[in-house]
């Protein structure tokens, strides 16, 4: 399986010089790719991007996605619009996904079309499918 062929993750240079937020982000990404069971015990890295600071529907959608759509799950654009408080805003959810400043950590790859097709992804459709497959495989392993 292609998802299992990615064997190791490591931070090679400058780890001792990292700031605390960067260390948190590195630990979170390492856990995401290599040890998903640890993710529940790690804090989500702090976000300082302006898009996530100002009050907007995009911010609401991104925080809702981060909070409510768990590892190994997927949600449609319409379902995410409902969760964010405006069920008629599925197109706006698509716009929020396109402007997501922190892909993978804010898991826009988990938002799919109502038909079940994966839909578009800024990192490319193959990357989106790989991320979804990785999560599904890891979630199945954790269930055993």
TrEMBL record:
<keyword id="KW-0479">Metal-binding</keyword>
<dbReference type="InterPro" id="IPR001497">
    <property type="entry name" value="MethylDNA_cys_MeTrfase_AS"/>
</dbReference>
<dbReference type="GO" id="GO:0003677">
    <property type="term" value="F:DNA binding"/>
</dbReference>
<protein>
    <recommendedName>
        <fullName>Methylated-DNA--protein-cysteine methyltransferase</fullName>
        <ecNumber>2.1.1.63</ecNumber>
    </recommendedName>
</protein>
<dbReference type="InterPro" id="IPR036631">
    <property type="entry name" value="MGMT_N_sf"/>
</dbReference>
<keyword id="KW-0234">DNA repair</keyword>
<comment type="similarity">
    <text>Belongs to the MGMT family.</text>
</comment>
<keyword id="KW-0597">Phosphoprotein</keyword>
<dbReference type="InterPro" id="IPR036388">
    <property type="entry name" value="WH-like_DNA-bd_sf"/>
</dbReference>
<dbReference type="InterPro" id="IPR036217">
    <property type="entry name" value="MethylDNA_cys_MeTrfase_DNAb"/>
</dbReference>
<dbReference type="GO" id="GO:0032259">
    <property type="term" value="P:methylation"/>
</dbReference>
<keyword id="KW-0862">Zinc</keyword>
<comment type="function">
    <text>Involved in the cellular defense against the biological effects of O6-methylguanine (O6-MeG) and O4-methylthymine (O4-MeT) in DNA. Repairs the methylated nucleobase in DNA by stoichiometrically transferring the methyl group to a cysteine residue in the enzyme. This is a suicide reaction: the enzyme is irreversibly inactivated.</text>
</comment>
<keyword id="KW-0808">Transferase</keyword>
<dbReference type="GO" id="GO:0046872">
    <property type="term" value="F:metal ion binding"/>
</dbReference>
<dbReference type="GO" id="GO:0003908">
    <property type="term" value="F:methylated-DNA-[protein]-cysteine S-methyltransferase activity"/>
</dbReference>
<dbReference type="Pfam" id="PF01035">
    <property type="entry name" value="DNA_binding_1"/>
</dbReference>
<keyword id="KW-0539">Nucleus</keyword>
<feature type="domain" description="Methylated-DNA-[protein]-cysteine S-methyltransferase DNA binding">
    <location>
        <begin position="59"/>
        <end position="136"/>
    </location>
</feature>
<keyword id="KW-0238">DNA-binding</keyword>
<dbReference type="GO" id="GO:0005654">
    <property type="term" value="C:nucleoplasm"/>
</dbReference>
<keyword id="KW-0489">Methyltransferase</keyword>
<keyword id="KW-0227">DNA damage</keyword>
<dbReference type="GO" id="GO:0006281">
    <property type="term" value="P:DNA repair"/>
</dbReference>
<dbReference type="InterPro" id="IPR014048">
    <property type="entry name" value="MethylDNA_cys_MeTrfase_DNA-bd"/>
</dbReference>
């Amino acid at each position: 399986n292609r998802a299992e062929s990615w064997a190791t993750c490591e931070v090679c240079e400058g780890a001792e010089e990292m700031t605390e937020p960067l260390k948190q982000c590195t630990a979170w990404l390492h856990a995401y790719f290599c040890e998903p069971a640890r993710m529940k015990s790690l804090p989500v890295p702090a976000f300082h991007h302006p898009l996530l600071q100002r009050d907007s529907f995009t911010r609401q959608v991104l925080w809702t996605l981060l909070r409510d759509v768990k590892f190994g799950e997927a949600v449609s654009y319409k379902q995410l619009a409902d969760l964010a408080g405006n069920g008629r805003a599925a197109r706006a959810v698509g716009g929020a996904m396109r402007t997501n400043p922190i892909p993978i950590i804010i898991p826009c790859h988990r938002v799919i079309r109502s038909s079940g097709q994966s839909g578009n992804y800024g990192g490319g459709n193959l990357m989106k499918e790989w991320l979804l497959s990785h999560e599904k495989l890891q979630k199945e392993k954790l269930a055993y």
